[in-house]
Structures are given as structure tokens and as C-alpha cells.
Amino acid sequence: MSDVELLKKEAGIAACAFVTSGMKVGLGTGSTVKYTVIELGRMIAEEGLEIVGVPTSLATEQLATEVGIPLVELSDVSGLDVVIDGADEYDSDFQLIKGGGAALLREKIVAQESRAMVVVADDRKRVDSLGAFPLPIEITPFAYQSTIRALGRILDCRVNCRMAGDHPVFTDNGNMIADAHCGPTLTQPAEIEHAILGIAGVVQVGLFIDMCDAVVLAGQNGVETHLNPNGRLI
Ligand code: 5RP
After folding, report:
1. How far apart are CA 194 and CA 179, in angstroms?
2. Would you say the C-alpha torsion 27, 33, 35, 39 has a positive or negative sign?
3. How many CA atoms lie within 13 A of 224 on its CB side?
4. Residue 99 Cβ contacting ligand 1 at under 6 Å
5. What is the reported pLDDT for 76?
6. What CA–CA distances, in Å, run from 125 to 89, 122, 133, 163, 214?
7. Cα separation of 95 and 77, whole Å?
8. Which of 58, 63, 98 to mutate to test the pocket of ligand 1 (most atoms within 8 A of CB)?
9. Per-residue pLDDT, 84
10. pTM above 0.90, yes or no
11. Whole-angstrom Cα distance, residue 93 to residue 115?
12. pLDDT at position 143
């Protein structure tokens, strides 16, 4: 296992400390939180942990099923106790860029329905200003080139349609992803989120504003949990 993979595993497993029996848990998407999902499956099998999960993607649904986490529909429960998810970047105000795995819409719906959000990350994800990671934006297939042009105009940067080889990437919701190459300039992410959501054709943007309550961060010196001083876990 590479050094980065080991850090992801450490962060993913450490975040399970936020989960106790009886909880309804949002299960994020990505290569870090997959270790959380696997560990929760182990805790169910070996330690008698009793939880139900709501996955944020078809990939996580499959993994959670494989490791034995009972799943429920978000619509069938009155909110979740916690969601644990990855992030592509986070800043000192605990604002996030997510959507590198194209799951941002379901991730944001699940986060919005959760009483707390815990992010699992390795130390490459901490940034001073958001935006070096291309900002993912879920858009409708209808007139997607027009929507991409409109995004380019308001963001004043290059925006491209995410591709897998010769074909556009389609999300679990049948939409497409535009990636905006803003550079590390997103110092007012709430304003940017608002402007992007004002464009018809945009379904959702991967800026998660005032949603993250804690980051479980793995680095060379071990795992640290950083609580958002303005968050719900203080
Ligand atoms: C998927 C996401 C992921 O959580 C994000 O891309 C981080 O993934 P990883 O842990 O693989 O770096 O937002 O849409």
C-alpha cells in the first residue's frame, strides 16, 4: 500500500469514532471514505454495532451491501445523525470542494439531511484558498454546451465537460459534470455557489458551504481531528 493510501485508510478508520449504535449514518463516496465503510462493516460483524446507512452513490451502495451495512432510503427516515464523506479540498473555514467522484448531488442532499458532517482526508486536501482542484458542477445533458459557456462567462475561467475517454461522464442521476478551472481564487465560496446555482442548466455545484463540522486528517504525524469552531460538534 502506498503512503497516501495508508493515510486514507487511517483517516477513514479513525472517523468511525463518530459512529455509535443506534445511529443513522450517511455513507460518502470516494477512495478515503471507502475505508470508513469497510470498517463500519467490520464493527457490525465483530463488535455488534447496530446502525443503518444511507449511501451517496451507487458505488457506495454496492460496497456497503458487500460489507453488510443495512441500508435505508433517505426519504424513509427523519434525518441522519452523521454523514462521513471525503473532500477534494477544504479551507481554514471548513468550506469544501467535493465532486471529484461525480457524486456531489447525492452527497449534498445527504449532508443537508445530516445533523453533523465529518470529512475524512489526507493532508494534501488542506488549502489556503479553494479552487486549485477544478470545481465540479453537475449540469443537465440538455444544452450542456450552452450551460458550460454560461459557466465560463460568470466564472471567467476555462470550464470543460468531464470525459471518460471519448464519452462524457454521466452521474448516477443521469446528468453530466462540468469542471471549472478557477485556480485557487475562491475566497468567497458562498457568493460563487449562489452565482453558479442561478444558471439554468446547473443542477448542483460541489461547493459545500457551512456544512462540515469536523475533518479527520491523516498526515505523516498521525491522525488529527479538527473540529469546526462554528460547527455542530462543539
Ligand atoms: C465524490 C467526492 C469525494 O468524496 C472526493 O472526490 C474525495 O475523494 P477521495 O477520498 O477519493 O480523494 O466528492 O464525489
Report:
1. 17
2. negative
3. 9
4. yes
5. 98
6. 5, 6, 9, 23, 14
7. 27
8. 98
9. 99
10. yes
11. 18
12. 98
Do both 115 and 189 map to the same domain?
no
> What separation in Å is there between the alpha carbon of 121 and the centre of ligand 1?
9
pLDDT of residue 1: 84
In a domain, 24, yes or no: yes
Total residues belonging to the chain: 234
Q: Please say whether the beta carbons of 134 and 180 come within 8 A.
A: yes
Residues 156 and 118 in one domain: no
Which positions of the chain have pLDDT values less than 70? Answer: none
- Round to whole Å and give the CA distance between 148 and 168: 13
Radius of gyration, alpha carbons of the chain: 17
Asked if the structure places residue 234 within a domain, the reply is: no
Query: The domain that contains 64 carries what CATH number?
Result: 3.40.50.1360
- Report whether residue 85 contacts ligand 1, using a CB cutoff of 6 Å: yes
Half-sphere exposure of 55 (CA within 13 A, CB side): 22
pLDDT tens string 153-203: 999 999 999 999 999 999 999 999 999 999 999 999 999 999 999 999 999
